[in-house]
Amino acid sequence: MQIPLFLLHTVLIPGAHLPLKVFETRYLDMVSQCLKNNTPFGVCLIRSGQEVGSAGEPWPVGTLATIEQWDMPKPGVLHIEVVGTERFSIVDQDKHGELITATVEIWPADPELEIPARYAGLVEFLRAVLKDREDVDEANLENAGWVSWRLAALLPVSNEIRQQWLMLRDPVMRLGEILEELTRLADERR
Which of 15, 63, 160, 180 is the most buried (most CB within 10 A)? Predict the structure, then answer.
């Protein structure tokens, strides 16, 4: 699959929403094409370089982004909201001016695995955080992949840590990494 890449200093987690302000010509053109053709684009964390100006170097794993809403408050500026869908690996990439396109391999969705008892505290933590949300299906709180992605999106961690979680294919292993990081964060606050 060939897709354009939007390089950012953020990691898009599958299932998470991300608002973006688009003003660079390369990305305005890209978003216009994606809207016109109803196609996704890839969001990748920048490994080196900047968001604005010449294209940076992406991490090798990113997330497909589907545009859910858009608005043009003034000429030359688009506000879009995207949702992360599948993860992908970059197989090959090309530069077209300042826009990077990539041939990507789409990863399968996380397997639906039950959450081991040792991670029950993570489920209770997430349940407490989401308690006022009406759109949370209780059954999702039994799915290791869903819980790990929600926690990965919510926790105040560095982009590098979030990227490492994105690159893990096993949702139970991801829960283990998240628990380690939460424990480390709690220890720092003592």
Answer: 63
The CATH number fitting domain 117-188, selected from 1.20.58.1480, 3.40.50.920, 3.50.50.60, 3.30.70.1060: 1.20.58.1480
Instruction: Enter the tokens of residue 138.
Output: 């209780």
Cβ of 77: how many Cβ atoms within 10 Å?
12
Between the two ends of the chain, the Cα-to-Cα distance in Å is 48
CA separation for the pair 88, 103 (Å, rounded): 10
Can you give the pTM of this predicted structure?
Answer: 0.91
The C-alpha atoms of residue 181 and residue 129 are separated, in whole angstroms, by 17
Running along the chain, 190 residues long, what does each successive block of 10 average in pLDDT?
96 97 94 97 89 76 98 94 98 90 97 95 92 73 95 95 98 98 88
Give the C-alpha separation, 125 to 116, whole Å: 15
